[in-house]
Amino acid sequence: MNNRERAESIVRSVDLVLVWLAAQKFAEAVETLRTIKDHAQDIAKDLHE
Fold first, then answer.
1. Could you tell me the pTM of the whole model?
2. Which portions of the chain are predicted below pLDDT 50?
């Protein structure tokens, strides 16, 4: 494996890590939005009682 191939391999690896990190952050954001939605539904339910 020459230096160019090594560099391309590193770039691919870093790209995969970046995609994984972005997916993890997206999952955290979805969970936060679900929590906010649940709280908003609870508040709306309490206001209607």
1. 0.71
2. none
